[in-house]
Amino acid sequence: MRVSTKMIITLSICLFTFFSKAQDASVEKSVFGIQTSLFDIWVHNETKLTNQIALRSEIGLNSNIWAGNFYDKIGFFITPVIIVEPRLYYNLNKRVSKSKRIDGNSGNFISLKTTYHPDWFVISNYDNLNIVNDVSIIPTWGIRRNIGKHFNYETGIGLGYRYIFAKQENKSDAALNLHLRIGYRF
């Protein structure tokens, strides 16, 4: 059987098109932005490790509000937080195949969120308030989606472990990560 030149060229173009579409979608090389929730704010950077894994690093301010019979007024404090979080964006290829956006690492992810609250400073309506250093490690599932070119929202949920470095007695307990953030990507 004789194969014509036209058939070889047509087959080559078809194969080239197929393989160029089959390339893996990838997280961005670097994403820098700011996110906020109701009372908290963070500056973050995500750096590409592989096509689907990015290392997210954050520094921010977390807040807490409390009240009760033992306090003469509603209390609040704001304290710094450092977060390191490897993220696996597992549905990028599926989003691309459905012509959905993946810029700014828009997609579903699973992560291992590691959070450290240092006792550097505390902003509070109570005097001489200190916090106790703690570290938490929380497996998390979440999503990030774009709103226009620069804005995004993100939500996630996870349950993990927290270790508290108390002076009298160190202790550990369960930790919950439940977040809803809106952000701006630079």
Question: Which features does this protein show?
Answer:
186 residues, mainly beta, Porin, eight-stranded antiparallel beta barrel, 12% helix
Walkthrough of the structure:
The protein is built from two helices and nine strands; from the N terminus they run αββββαβββββ. By secondary structure, the chain is mostly beta strands. It has one domain (24-185): Porin (Beta Barrel), CATH 2.40.160. Strands 1-2-3-4-5-7-8-9 form an eight-stranded antiparallel beta barrel. It starts with a helix and ends with a strand.
CATH fold descriptor: Porin
Radius of gyration: 23 Å
Main sheet attributes: strand count, strand direction, barrel closure: 8 strands, antiparallel, barrel
User: Into how many domains do the coordinates divide?
Assistant: 1
Number of strands: 9
State the helix count.
Answer: 2
Strand content: over 45%
CATH class: Mainly Beta
Question: Distance N terminus to C terminus?
Answer: 59 Å
As residue ranges, the low-confidence spans are 18-22
Order of helices and strands: HEEEEHEEEEE
Looking at the structure, what is the overall shape? elongated
CATH architecture descriptor name: Beta Barrel
Major sheet: arrangement of strands: 1-2-3-4-5-7-8-9
Mean pLDDT: 89
